[in-house]
Design goal:
heterotrimer, A: 292 residues, mainly alpha, C: alpha+beta, D-Maltodextrin-Binding Protein, domain 2, Dipeptide-binding Protein, domain 1, Dipeptide-binding Protein, domain 3, eight-stranded mixed sheet, 20% strand, globular
Chain lengths: 292, 306, 538
């Protein structure tokens, strides 16, 4: 007889499927996900859906006008439509945050894996450096980098990425330290795997979960950091680029006479950061129940 | 414990030196000349040369460094380029301001954040839980300066309850401390909640419930002490970021602390002031970390002193 | 846990009910610094407006200026005579004047003060130059360092003696000052903060920020708190009689909008009134009654790199000059605080000519000029600035108005120290210059054209074809007595400068302040300086 034998035990579901399921069951993380998608859409579709030009305004007629039918978020001190600038601002702020975090992640993962895996004096030296960097006020490093390289958008990205890699490195390192003791590592090594193979093919996939979680959570703080740097006068030099932080800074003087000018960029920052935080929390709960 | 403390302090010395060296060279690499900043638009070629000589900027870099470094080892952090006053004087005037502000912010964060976190954990999934979670979320997501400005308007102007800016260890402290505490408050709340929740679902807690112990006693005696460890960790890292977080608050509320000094000094390329302030911040950060590490065994007897 | 919670709540609640607004009684006044805070309280080293605010209220010089007319009036010098050739000034000191440390004023104090001012170790070069540059002995007091040539060792400058030989003591109550050139503005410049008299020997080892200078003005420095405030108390022995306001507190509130909030809350008697808040202030009956506008003698202009291929072409400069809609910018961004500037001189100077309008806005002419210069399809220009908020808004507004003429103006704002550096080396096409006059004399505007500062040298102001002509006219004009002939010379300079568009003037500014109703007298003089001694309270 060729009847197929039904297995007694069904194969366990892929951990990723379980994770996504758990993520989707959590209303907070759905909201977070929704927010993030919406903001990304605003950023990508800005040129299509924005009603006005973000740089040229009608100074004569639209100087600091409150929200109206023509300008849903009002206008600013050059007569520019704020809704348009918030949409384009999503491009800038998100680009800076994602790029900076990407840099931080890459550098942090590499450094964390090397120090965690090899240990010894390499670990000591690099961790000492990390201590020094983390004791530095973010402000000085940011000014230094933007000063040396020029105060452009790319350099803000570099500066923020440079400040944040230390956090990722620390997390990765502690994960690697724990993973090193795991059985699968010993098994792989006894089968003759090289260090590099071990790191890339075995350890890395198992530690990536918390990295992604912290990366997502960290995006929020990078957006806030960029806003703070703009507030202190270190944002990108070119006047026209409307990052949300820059918009907030420029409208500081108007906080009482034109509430809409700082309100909408501030709200955009708040909602976006909230979105990343909710999503990050959800990911943490979903991917690793005991994540710390 | 003493040995451990001394060991940590000794370990920090090379870090401190490293920071000093890094700051020194970093500042001088930046574009922007302090002499020209002082002279402004009215500087003639002669007066610029004069000012540069007076500030010692014409010496070769290593000579400048040696002078600064050897003086620093003797406790002389140099004189501000702008005011010609010793850097140690301006730091010692500003330090208590920042310390008090940070301390009050921390008290608010701990005094409000932890209880709220407990409430949230204990009333898990109720409306209180969700409300407090929302507040926490907003707390970590809100730009501090926006919050500060709104507080100024609401309490300072519309309700006329509190002064809007300026220093003073009285009700001038309230708004700045409130604004500075928000971030840490939110984080502490979240960590208290999640840490306590985790502990509350443990078996030994269920056992205690099963035995008939009331919720209050369980919370205090069993749950909270076990939840304290992660809270302490977060509090420790939060302290350091609180120190730099007060920077923005100081700018908004015109609070005369070290953060404001640092921002102004960097803008003016006042090298001695920047160097002195960075070292001070770093030293404070290290000491706080040490303090947190020393507190661990007190919280959890299982952890011995390394 | 519970205990600390209770303690904390008590702390919060109780502090909410402690009202801390300082007792504003009838003899104390609270104001705020206009920029940030004083960098020094040493009058000879004072550079910024915040330094001047304190110096002008605490110290006096041989002359002061009238609060309304801005003309020099006798102060510590009771009278003076000027020789026929305009070179020798003989001052008779006022009798019975004492410094705040009790010592009496005599000629030795004057000599000490001017010597100290001339000493590079104490007196800031610009402050000292303004007062003493024409006095005999200035060249020896501030020797210039010649640049080292190839192969020669860097010359070591002679050490200045800290003495200005042109100032001499005739007797206890008479001082003589001899000028190297008969410059008419000397008396006006003596009213500047650098020219105040301090007590002989009082500066040695003195911590000026903590103690203030020893002067003979209406106030003395009672307290200085870093980054927070400076407190002045009335000088009972002031020669004009003790002032009405006993205690004057000047607070450090760098955020202008915070100052307005404090004013509205009643804790500031004088505050800035930034443009952003003006519409709201003007609509409020109480506030608008306390709003004061003072025209500042200033000229916001563009300094152009005359060596740059684009900006070096006068057609491009003129095209930009006439493309700007100055009035629109003033009406919107500046909320009316200002007057369009077509030349050098602001209203208030005798050389101001309301009919002088070489830069009428004409978009056709702009396009014609640009085409002629080789840019038929428009031109892209970049202007540098620092992070001053108002200036950035002004430049953005200007960019908006010139866009329709085919000029794309990019605004590049950087930190002040970076901008200053690039501006001095002139590594830019153009830069925004906020020029406020040091004293009300047209010669202080012509300075903008002269290659006597590193920045203007590097931007090519000395090499321009009319540079020599302007310099000759300037040298001639400063020696003439005040009057029509002098004015005519300065107006000729203005004509030449604008024909060649050596600088691009944009607007003459004004400043708005909120001054509390409880202040009478003359709280603000026409120079925009707060004068506590002229205030009445209540």
């Amino acid at each position: 007889m060729s009847a197929s034998v039904k297995p007694l035990v069904t194969a366990p579901r892929h951990p990723l499927t379980l994770a996504v399921r758990r993520l989707l069951r959590n209303p907070a993380s759905i909201i977070g996900f929704g927010i993030v998608i919406t903001m990304l859409a605003c950023a990508l579709l800005a040129p299509l859906i924005a009603p006005y030009d973000p740089i040229l305004g009608d100074l004569a007629n639209d100087y600091v006008k409150p929200p109206s039918a023509e300008h849903v978020f009002g206008t600013d001190a050059i007569g520019r439509d704020i809704f348009t600038r918030v949409l384009y601002g999503a491009q800038i702020s998100l680009k800076i945050a994602l790029a900076a975090q990407a840099i931080a992640m890459i550098v942090g993962v590499v450094v964390g894996m090397i120090t965690g895996y090899f240990g010894g004096w390499v670990d000591l030296l690099i961790m000492r450096m990390v201590d020094i960097l983390m004791a530095f006020p973010l402000l000085i490093i940011a000014i230094a980098l933007t000063g040396v390289l020029g105060s452009s958008e790319n350099n803000i990205i570099l500066a923020l990425g440079f400040v944040n890699w230390t956090i990722t490195a620390r997390i990765v390192r502690s994960q690697v330290l724990a993973a090193k003791e795991m059985e699968y590592v010993a098994a792989a090594r006894s089968l003759g795997a090289t260090s590099l193979t071990l790191m890339v093919r075995h350890i890395f996939p198992n530690i990536i979960a918390p990295v992604i979680v912290y990366a997502t959570l960290g995006l929020g703080s990078i957006i806030l950091a960029e806003a703070s740097l703009s507030f202190l006068g270190l944002g990108s030099a070119q006047q026209a680029t409307p990052s949300w932080g820059k918009m907030l800074t420029e409208s500081r003087a108007f906080i009482r006479s034109a509430w809409w000018m700082p309100f909408y960029p501030g709200l955009a920052i708040l909602i976006t950061v909230m979105g990343f935080n909710l999503l990050g929390d959800g990911l943490r709960d979903a991917l690793d129940v005991r994540a710390r | 414990m003493l040995r451990y403390t001394l060991g940590r302090l000794l370990q920090f010395i090379p870090t401190l030196i490293g920071i000093y060296v890094l700051t020194f060279f970093l500042m001088r690499v930046l574009p922007g000349d302090p002499a020209q900043f002082l002279e402004g638009d009215r500087g003639s070629t002669e007066s610029l040369a004069e000012t540069r000589a007076r500030l010692g900027l014409d010496e070769p870099l290593f000579t400048q460094f040696t002078i600064f470094f050897t003086n620093a080892l003797n406790g002389d952090l140099g004189k501000s380029f702008i005011t010609q006053r010793p850097v140690t004087d301006s730091i010692s005037q500003a330090f208590p301001q920042t310390a008090v502000l940070a301390l009050c912010a921390m008290l608010i964060a701990v005094g409000v954040g932890i209880p709220l976190g407990i409430v949230a954990a204990v009333t898990h999934n109720s409306i209180w839980d969700n409300l407090t979670r929302l507040i926490a979320l907003i707390g970590v997501s809100i730009p501090v300066f926006w919050l500060g400005l709104q507080l100024q308007i609401l309490f300072g102007l519309q309700l006329k309850l509190l002064p809007v800016s300026g220093a003073g260890f009285d009700n001038h402290l309230v708004l700045p401390a409130l604004a500075a505490s928000f971030g840490m408050l939110a984080v502490l709340m979240r960590i208290t909640r999640s840490s306590l929740l985790e502990v509350l679902t443990q078996d030994y807690i269920r056992t205690a419930r099963g035995k008939g112990l009331g919720f209050g006693r369980i919370s205090r005696r069993h749950a909270l002490t076990n939840a304290l460890l992660p809270i302490l960790t977060v509090w420790g890292t939060g302290l350091a970021s609180l120190l730099s977080g007060t920077l923005l608050v100081e700018v908004i509320f015109s609070w005369p602390g070290m953060g404001r000094l640092l921002v102004d000094a960097i803008g003016a390329r006042d090298y001695p002031s920047v160097q002195g302030l960075v070292i001070t911040f770093a030293a404070i950060y290290a000491l706080l970390n040490l303090l947190v590490d020393l507190l661990y065994p007190l919280v959890d007897p299982r952890i011995a002193y390394p | 846990m519970k205990f600390s919670l209770r303690l904390l709540s008590v702390f919060i609640v109780s502090s909410l009910f402690v009202f801390s607004v300082a007792a504003q009684d009838a003899t104390s006044v609270t104001v705020a610094f206009a920029e940030s805070q004083p960098t020094t309280l040493d009058p000879h080293a004072s550079r910024t407006n915040d330094d001047f605010l304190v110096t002008r209220n605490v110290c006096e010089g041989l002359t002061n200026y009238d609060a309304l007319t801005l003309e020099p009036i006798p102060a510590l010098a009771e009278s003076w005579t000027v020789s026929e050739d305009g070179l020798t000034y003989t001052f008779t000191l006022r009798a019975g004047v004492t410094f705040t440390d009790g010592s009496a004023l005599d000629a030795a104090d004057v000599k000490y003060s001017f010597d100290r001012l001339s000493n590079p170790a104490f007196g800031t070069s610009y402050t000292a130059a303004l007062v003493l540059r024409d006095v005999v002995g200035w060249a020896e007091a501030r020797p210039s360092v010649p640049a080292a040539g190839e192969g020669t060792p860097t010359p070591v400058p002679p050490v200045p003696a800290g003495v200005i030989s042109g100032v001499t003591v005739v007797d206890d109550s008479t001082v003589q000052v001899v000028l190297a050139r008969p410059v008419t503005s000397f008396l006006t410049r003596l009213t500047l903060p650098g020219g105040v008299i301090i007590a002989e020997g009082s500066a040695e080892g003195r911590d000026f920020l903590a103690e203030g200078p020893v002067c003979a003005g209406p106030y003395s420095v009672a307290e200085w708190v870093q980054n927070d405030r400076v407190t002045l108390t009335a000088n009972p022995t002031y020669w004009q009689g003790a002032p009405a306001v006993q205690t004057a507190t000047v607070r450090v509130i760098p955020e202008a909008s915070s100052q307005v909030i404090e004013f509205e809350a009643g804790s500031l008697d004088i505050s800035l009134a930034p443009e952003a808040d003006l519409p709201r202030i003007r609509e409020d009956a109480t506030l608008s009654a306390q709003l004061v506008t003072i025209a500042t003698l200033s000229n916001y202009n563009f300094r152009m790199n005359l060596k740059d291929p684009k900006m070096g072409d006068v057609r491009v400069r003129r095209a930009l000059a006439i493309a700007i809609d100055r009035q629109l910018v003033i009406d919107t961004v500046l909320q009316g605080n200002g007057v369009p500037a077509d030349g050098l001189y602001p209203p208030g100077l005798t050389t101001y000519n309301a009919d002088f309008a070489p830069f009428e806005r004409d978009l056709d002419e702009v396009r014609a000029l640009l085409t002629e210069a080789g840019y038929p399809d428009g031109i892209e220009l970049t202007i540098r600035t620092d992070q001053n908020e108002t200036e950035n808004r002004v430049l953005n507004a200007i960019a908006a108005t010139v866009a329709e003429a085919g000029i794309t103006l990019m605004v590049n704002s950087t930190e002040a120290s970076v901008y200053t550096q690039d501006r001095t080396a002139c590594t830019m096409e153009m830069g925004g210059i906020r020029w406020s006059m040091d004293y009300p004399d047209p010669e202080n505007m012509v300075v903008l054209l002269l290659p006597n500062a590193a920045t203007r040298v590097n931007c090519g102001y000395g090499d321009h074809e009319v540079a020599g002509q302007i310099n000759d006219l300037y040298t001639q004009g400063i020696s003439l007595p005040f009057g029509a002939e002098r004015d005519a010379i300065f107006q000729e300079i203005e004509q030449i400068a604008m024909d060649n568009v050596l600088i691009l003037p944009v607007y003459h500014g004004a400043t708005t302040r909120l001054i509390s109703n409880r202040l009478g007298g003359t709280p603000l003089d026409n120079n925009g300086t707060i004068r506590f001694a002229l205030m009445e309270v209540g």
